[in-house]
Amino acid sequence: MNNKDEKYLNISKEIVEYVGGVENIQGVAHCATRLRIVLEDKSKVKTEKIEDVELVKGVFTVGDQLQIIFGAGLVNEVYSVFSKYTGTENMSLADVKSKSAEKQNPLQKAIKSLSDIFIEIMPGILAAALLMGLTGVLGQKGLFGPKSVVQMVPALAGINRLVGIASSSIFSILPLIVAYSATKRYGGKPVLGLVLGAIMLNGNLADAFAAANGSVKPEIINILGLNIELVGFQGGIIIALMIGYVVAALDKFFDRKIPNAFKLLVSPMLTVLISAILLFTIIGPVGRGLANGITFSLLWMTQHLGFIGYMIFAGVQQIIVITGLHHIMGAVEAQLLSSTGNDFLNPLMSVALFGQGGAVLGFLLLNRKNTKTKEVCIASFGSVLFGISEPAIFGVTLKNKFPLIAGCCGGAIAGAYVYFSKLTAIGFGTTAVPGIAIASPANNGYINYIIAHLIALVAAGSFTFIYGKAKNKELVDNKDFLIPVSGEVMDLEEVNDGVFSTKMMGDGFAIEPENGTVLAPFNGIITSLFPTKHALSIMSDLGVEILVHFGLETVNLNGEGFTAHVKEGDRVKAGDKLLTVDIDKIKDKVPATTVMVIFTELNGKSFSYKKGKADTKDKNVIAIE
Fold first, then answer.
1. Active-site residue flag, 565
2. pLDDT tens-place string over residues 152-186
3. Could you confirm whether 31 is annotated as catalytic?
4. What is the secondary structure of 526-592 as a DSSP string?
5. Can you list the domains of the chain with their CATH numbers?
6. Catalytic-role residue among 30, 453, 534, 549
């Protein structure tokens, strides 16, 4: 170890001691200037001690995240040693932000965890979706005439066959990779998730689809007095999610309880054994029961509630896709074709899918200046065109919540049109653009198929865009913020404090206040409120976060002269009162009462401001682009 690394190691040891030990560290990452540490309990942090550590230029807390300023370049070197010392290598800044998510309710946490699970496997799903769309176009009759492209160009047959194998492979093992990703997301060893995923798809088990239609009779064994059918879990996405959670919980439990001398040998074995037993005795039956209940409920609605039933089915079908339960619809569609010669579910599922595509386009329009968002939206919409909605759902609509609902509403409206136009299909297994080939030509079927999908696309896109604009009017319409304090707006470089003037804590501006009233500059959530009430952070609904710091060295007043009107986790509207500061009481006790406004998170956007005298009602002082 060279002298520099030894110095960084000593710094790391001191920081670990002052944050409450390694066990109080959930995650570590760094940005351009700061080491970011997610804490289990921030009350254990000794901020004053950390400030005295060699090379540290400043310390502050945002929510459960401790940010230690080292400066550009230096922070990379410190992080390299610190992460190895604490065993937190290879965590991204996104990982750390995920761990420090603020006070979400149970539903928000559930949605967030689902999104996290699928985000990691999204590249594979997206690749398979696009390849599946390609092979569908090449092999589908009726798109370019009575023959398929492969029949017209036989030389493409081999390529189409290979593309078909490549596209179907990931979907045939989707429960396995979901179990892997879920186990990793919930803190277990990912390889154990792979093992349980392999058990779910083991070749010695009866195929789930074959068992469902009665063509295969599964073997029955006795476990703890219970007769268990050895049936596989093909298509069992919700079961894979559940078993991933169980594997992670058991893995962490046994790692804590089993002595180190036996841990490597015993802990994985017990985790896999107990998880497998639970899979066949509890989790599998519960998941299948849920699937059957949802299926029969949806069918009952479409058969007994007229156009309302069609709307409900098309409105919720893509939510069912989130769980993976939609895979069982194939058997239902096959029965419909066998009994009636038509499949009314196929066009409903197709317009539901296109509703999510419309929501993606609406979200893209809202965020058209965000390069990363554009890339995700364009790729996701491409897969929707070929009948695969998972990239759109897990990459865009579910992640951002309101586009998911807007997409469902668009699908529901199109579902009503499907009912009144009597649109059906003469086959199943393909939707969206390739699906027009299996639309029934009766009742102007091809034209109605196109109209129904355009309705879903336009309605969902419009709902997403209109709601997005209404929800974030300050950002989407005018890109304006209100300033939090009335006074003289100036550059940070004019502040008489090295940490702020050199922008160690981030870029922003300062205000020489006229009074002590601090107002919310936009609609958002209070992500942190310092115990001394001299500073707080607010996250806007579009992901722009600011830190409002009132005065220099006001932390030493321990809250004297400061009154907070909000608490962490509160939702506020632009103009709501956040703090009241008795300037007359504190001005002789601190170097300055200057207010610093620091942009701690811009989410790919940029900001500008106008210097000079400004009021909290002014809408042209700060602009976000």
1. no
2. 888 888 988 888 888 777 777 888 988 998 898 88
3. yes
4. EEEE-TTSSEEEEEETTS-EEEEEEEESGGGGTTTTEEES--TT-EE-TT-EEEEE-HHHHTTTSSE
5. 3-99 (3.30.1360.60), 479-624 (2.70.70.10)
6. 549
